[in-house]
Amino acid sequence: MLKRLLGGRHKSTLSEEELMKQLDISKLPVHVAIIMDGNGRWATRRGAPRSFGHRAGVNALREVVKLSVELKLKYLTVYAFSTENWKRPREEVNILMNLLVEYLYKEIDELCANNVHINPMGILSELPPKPREAVDMAIRRSKNNTGLVFNVALNYGGRSELLKAVREIGQKINSGEIKVEEINEQVIADHLFTKGQPDPDLLIRPSGDCRVSNFLLWQLAYTEFWLTDVMWPDFGRREFLQALLDFQKRERRFGGLIT
Ligand code: IPE
Ligand code: IPE
Ligand code: MG
């Protein structure tokens, strides 16, 4: 039972080719979300500074985006920086922001060549000027792309997203644009950063922690969770394929019964 619950905690011994062969391409999740966690611990275990882990984490992200494109996934959402991550030492926050800027400028050509649409989500106005410029550039350059929608959660928090939605809806009530009775789940979903997107089918969290850490609180209502002890910098194609394979074995009931 526990083994089933923690599916992904058990390292696969299969090769990438074997995993790929088992995968049913017609039953892939439409939307995959990932909490890219464990960079710091990965580095500390190697006696290296945390920044070393963050840099290695960017490489893992690059591979996961590449595989998402190869598999023709429709939506990939990655948690890159939370509204609570500002609590970290200033030096670490700066390193994370610099890595983001570097990643976007370095990768934008290839992402666009792969038809990836970059959709940063979070309170972007609170980002420092350089990351904001990089984010604006990525939005501008990729806005007409029709392939993978790549949501990058930056200064993102599920509660702050819901708070923003409530305020916006409240303003529309004040101005007479909508009535209180007209608020329904769709209206709320339409005021989130994931407007127009399906909810994640699969949430991956590496590095052993079992919590959502303020990620996609509304959208995860019926998402399948896949956890692994592998740290994010070590998360590669095999882990991603294993998560997708395990997802394909899950029985999703959405509160109903399978008849
Ligand atoms: C994830 O790795 C990166 C961010 C949160 C930005 P962490 O930095 O949280 O690494 P751990 O969890 O401390 O190992
Ligand atoms: C979640 O990881 C945020 C990101 C991966 C960007 P954290 O490392 O910040 O979460 P906690 O503090 O362990 O819950
Ligand atoms: Mg962490």
UniProtKB/TrEMBL annotation:
Q: Which PROSITE patterns does this entry report, sorted A to Z?
A: UPP_SYNTHASE
Could you identify this protein by its name? Isoprenyl transferase
- Sorted alphabetically, which CDD domains does this protein's record hold? Cis_IPPS
What the entry lists under PANTHER family is as follows:
DEHYDRODOLICHYL DIPHOSPHATE SYNTHASE 2, DEHYDRODOLICHYL DIPHOSPHATE SYNTHASE FAMILY MEMBER
SUPFAM superfamilies from the UniProt entry? Undecaprenyl diphosphate synthase
Give, as one word, the top-level EC class: transferase
Pfam families per UniProt: Prenyltransf (PF01255)
Family, according to the entry, reads as follows: Belongs to the UPP synthase family.
Q: How is the cofactor bound?
A: Binds 2 magnesium ions per subunit.
Summarize the subunit comment. Homodimer.
**Which sites bind substrate?**
38-42, 50, 54, 82-84, 86, 88, 205, 211-213
Q: What does the function comment of this entry state? A: Catalyzes the condensation of isopentenyl diphosphate (IPP) with allylic pyrophosphates generating different type of terpenoids.
Can you supply a Gene Ontology BP term from the record? Answer: polyprenol biosynthetic process
List the active-site residues. Answer: 37, 85 (proton acceptor)
One annotated GO molecular function: magnesium ion binding
Q: What is its EC number?
A: 2.5.1.-
Keyword annotations: Magnesium, Metal-binding, Transferase
Necessary cofactors: Mg(2+)
- The positions annotated for binding Mg(2+) are 37, 224
